[in-house]
Amino acid sequence: MRVVLIIFFFLMFSSVAVAQTVIGKYAGEFLALGVGARPLGMGGTAVALTNDVTSGYWNPAGLAAINYPQVTVMHAENFGGIVGYDYAAVAIPFQTNKSFGVSVVRLGVADVPDTRAVWDNSRNDFTDDAKRVGVDMLISRFNAADYAVMLSYAATSTENFSYGVNAKVIYRNIGTFASAKGIGFDVGLIYRTSYGILLGASIQDVTTTLVSWSTGRNELIAPTAKLGTGYIMDALYGRFTLGADTDVRFEGRRSTANVNIGNVSFNFRGGAEYSYKNVVALRTGIDDIGRITLGAGIKLSKLNIDYAFAKFDGADQIGNSHRISLQIELDQEEYRRTGYTPPTPSTEETLKEKSSPESESE
Known about the structure:
Layout: H1 2-15, E1 21-23, H2 37-41, H3 55-58, E2 70-78, E3 83-94, E4 98-114, E5 119-120, E6 125-126, H4 128-133, H5 135-138, E7 140-156, E8 161-174, E9 178-192, E10 197-204, E11 209-213, E12 218-221, E13 224-235, E14 238-249, E15 259-261, E16 264-276, E17 280-286, E18 292-300, E19 303-310, H6 315-318, E20 321-329, H7 347-355, H8 357-361
Parallel strand pairs: 1-12
Antiparallel strand pairs: 2-3, 2-20, 3-4, 4-7, 5-6, 7-8, 8-9, 9-10, 9-11, 10-13, 11-12, 13-14, 14-16, 15-16, 16-17, 17-18, 18-19, 19-20
């Protein structure tokens, strides 16, 4: 698998070595991996359901739902531990209806062998130096990484409608060979009905993001439309959450698309969660490439601990993916959103407690 990644990075380098401007079909793919073990355990279904600090990634409109400051971190090992994926974010509510957030994403491969001094492609044989001093003496190593920083703003315009926008900075680095920078924007909205149905939409790279390489090559990241719906229902002493999302791209993807019509491709996701008294949660879903996902979470006072698992059919080649995320909510009164009143136990719950056998025995 490491050989495959080496080939991938050198193909990437060779592709950026020519000065031109092109539509980079997978130029922003590192930002499509998802964040937060809760939504990832549900197959990445989050466009309409997101309502916490991770909304800065999924749909910035969801940040308007937070009422206390939140902080989250996530680490994932992909492709058998070869690729490290890290994410951190903070979100803060302010005034009666607005929120601000900062998110950071990093995807990297360390210690990649540089074998150019070892192999002669023109002769399809080892170089003379490699034969003379040995292969190991000529192999150097480098790191490759992609970074993104997102600044998010969200607000509610009515009780049921919220909107948001992201400004993001992208930085990519392939050792000392090449680096790239880019700036892009995302927009999103969420509408919550009074029947437990949620509708969401976001457009990533809405203005088309330009990524400029040090080699002179420019890549354009085309917009991606994300459409989602969800349903929330209280039952069986807890809460059921169901969701379905569709990613619509305009880059001419075919092999990685669930459905394509000309240059328009569609990828579908679906997921479900059962949360017992907002303490323990179980999740499952199907992600955009058809993998089955599983997840679980537990809430300990101010801390949420979540885990997500994604299965690869070819586990012997690239391994399964494990994601763990931690989220802290500072729910003290001094940090509370202006005008927000925490919910109190309903009259129905109070009556149930009073009519319980324990209450009668007292």
